[in-house]
Amino acid sequence: TFHYSYITESLNTNFYQYLDLNIVIMAASFFMIFKHMGNFSSNIFKSLSEYSFGIYFIHPIFLKFIEIKHLTFSTIWAIQFLYVSILVLAVSYLCIYILRKLPHAKLYIG
Questions:
Q1: Helices (H) and strands (E) in the chain, counts
Q2: For residue 38, what is the DSSP state?
Q3: Number of other residues whose CB lies within 10 A of the CB of residue 68
Q4: Is 70 strand, coil or helix?
Q5: Category of 41 on φ-ψ map: left (φ > 0), alpha (ψ -120 to 50) or beta
Q6: How far apart are CA 26 and CA 10, in angstroms?
Q7: How many CB atoms lie under 10 A from the CB of residue 48?
Q8: Quick one: which of 6, 13, 42, 88 has the most CB atoms within 10 Å?
Q9: What is the pTM of this model?
Q10: Which pLDDT tens digit goes with each residue over 67-93?
Q11: Per-residue pLDDT at 29
Q12: Which residues, at least 6 apart from 6, have a Cβ–Cβ distance to it below 8 Å?
């Protein structure tokens, strides 16, 4: 997406759809990787698992913010994808972590 957007100088959302082939392949790959890891569990994965519902619902806000502000970290699309993924996950996690401290928040954000 970054590459096509960079070439056309406008946002290209061809690869943002959840049922696109590249997204399905990535999701299946991650599922298989974690499935074959066996009973590997750490505090990070347990925490991500606990907050995943909230992260799922809040991450589009941060993606939209990055899109609106035209934030770029690299001209290489793979590095840009990696940076944005890590940044959005971290900010979403932190936001849900803080929101869950509010009374009754678990009822709404999981």
A1: 5, 0
A2: T
A3: 9
A4: coil
A5: beta
A6: 25
A7: 13
A8: 88
A9: 0.65
A10: 888 888 878 877 888 899 899 999 999
A11: 82
A12: 75, 77
